[in-house]
Amino acid sequence: MQDSIAGRRLLDTLSADHPPVVKAWLGGGYNTVVRTNGARLWIDVEWVRRHAGKGFHVHPAGGSWNEPSAG
Fold this sequence. Notes:
By secondary structure, the chain is of the alpha+beta class.
């Protein structure tokens, strides 16, 4: 399955199951169709640059995607 198809399905499911979600960060592999689908669902989709290495790193809100936050 292409990333764009999976991304659209993910946002559809996210919107249906968790309506309070209004922001999503995606890697550059997702195309404009995913961002447009997010806008249709009132989810602001922002692309983030991939850093060297595996996995995600610190996101704009200051937390970490790959480790639970302490506290």
